[in-house]
Specification:
There is one protein chain. By secondary structure, this protein is mainly alpha-helical. The chain folds into three domains: 48 residues, no CATH class; 256 residues, Serine Threonine Protein Phosphatase 5, Tetratricopeptide repeat; 291 residues, no CATH class. Helix 26 packs antiparallel against helix 27.
Amino acid sequence: MKNSVIKTLLSLLLVFGANGCQSELEELYQDPDGFSKTQADKAGVSIIAGYFTSQLTRGFLLRGDYGSAYHQLRSGSRIMGTGVQLYYTTNAYGFAYTLYDVENDWGSNSFNRTVFNNINSPWIKQVLWGQKEFNKIPEDQRTQSDVLYMRLLHVLKAYGYQRAIDLYDEVPYFQTGSAGALDGEKAEYLGQEEIYPIIIEELKEIEEYLANLTLDDATQTSFQQQDVIFSGDITQWRKYINSLRLRWAMNISEVMPNITSTVISELSGKPMLDQATDVAGLADIAIVEPYRLQVELGITRAFRERADEARAPKRFLHDVMHCIPEEKSIVVNGETLYYFDSDNSEEGLANGTVDPRVAYLFSKDILGRYVGAETSFDDGSDPNSYFSKAMRGYYINHPIMTDLAVTEITFGAAGNEHTIKLNDEATADLTKREAFLLDAFRTFCGQYLDIGWVIGSDRNMISEYNVRPQFNFDIRYPTLHAVETELSLAEAAVRGLGSVTGSAREHYKKAIELSCRYWYQMNTANAYSKQTTPSFPSNMDQSRIDRDRPEVEYNESAYAEYEAQRFDGLTDEEKVRSIFNQLQLHYNMFNFETPYTAARRLISYLGDNPGSPYEVFQWKERFLYDPSIQATDPENWSRISQHDDYNLPIWFTGRQTKWKNVLE
């Protein structure tokens, strides 16, 4: 099992053995001058290889992170609408329909600074130490392994910088080949406009190096052990690098379309991520002790603690995946009222007109419906709003509406029943019951009384995210996946950016097929249970865990062709919006940054925000710097402080004006 191999490898990296070597690699990081390359060679350990493997396992770089994922869910969803927090979209808690400041709602605001602080320490120090050791080695004495690991460390360095500049624009930057602060050099603050061309060209050179590289047997064996992401597969690294270059080229398409076109043309015929298994990321369980994952570390703890955001977006289920509630009407007190009775999923999943990911990523409500929630605000004044129609389905055909003797209604699965009792006025008067019950059911669901703030209950009154992909400790955190590569090529083809091999339709269709295959596998291959270590949370219902596993693998090609036919009839702008929807749906709550970057970039092209921000929260154009810079580096603070404003669009958006939602 690969996880066991990775854990064994990481253990070996920490223990050097005899020959007077220090016992832990971590001591080397803290005191690199205390351990020479000569000593490392005698011990059979490459210092640079050690830094390479360590870099791959950095928190929040290529794997999940509890704290960051928590805040991505909590407040990232309010920006992008990936998951719905009903208390900010309905009147259930009495929140006013007024504008809220999401900037001061990111916990301690530490998440604002996470990526910035990481690029200045955890994400860069291994590269700098490795570079320092590499620079000490005479050029004619550098081994094939030394050069390979150093080149790949620069790939990871460039990836880290891309994430940082996409959120902050200007960050402290060290050029390739520099050991930076370790050699007394001060980092220079550079922004997207300067860094993107550098890293795009740098990765081109590294990919060309890899394309002509043949490893000897000893180096290949070592590489397979050291490389915990791609298991020493040079082709996978080439695919990763080329897909990164494609991502970056698309990111700057609004401001440097010539570079975009050049890069896309250069990538023609080169290997890129193109399989469902092609994902750049590391599973938490590969490096974290299993008993710590559930309660202390890892992204699954964030999912468990943020059941608030587990409510499924109507925009995904209904608008993107074509899972449409069956709407019926009834006349009550002379007024025509509508309700959702069921949905089209059973027939649609069978005939390829409903997205299979409905069954892989989301869970039905206790009425057996796939019905989500909106991010627009519903104050209860519209009796036929989407949320009201979902709630009305619970009681409208119950005897409580027509029999004066029935004064309470019980609903839900056996052992998980909910009961709502009428008040005195509704008890005595049938004409008062609809209004009372609608408000009661809206409040019950909106205040999370149905699930008790627990993800994975069998009591959810609207659809939620499916628990099985969420609580799959083997899932490799998808920092970059083949689906994104295919969607980028589709957008480039639609917009005429470079010479794209294949049509937009072909890439769009393939992206859907890959995403369906990926999420089916993440769901059904989940080997964990409530009895394993780590385990599903004990307060999850076993029935929910069982029913969240799809009964069959639906025909992704049939659905992808159906969606591609719809895609054919769209305008270019509508096609690009559909491409974005597929990107956000695929990454969902596992990857906030990539759809957030795409949304900000596309506002200029589309003339509107393709995401689904909550109406009651301000839109956030960028993240803010760590204010401690003002004291530690006043010179650079004077430069960057003028950009320390979340209302200021970042350079790559091509905009000077902030996008505003309906309340701004």
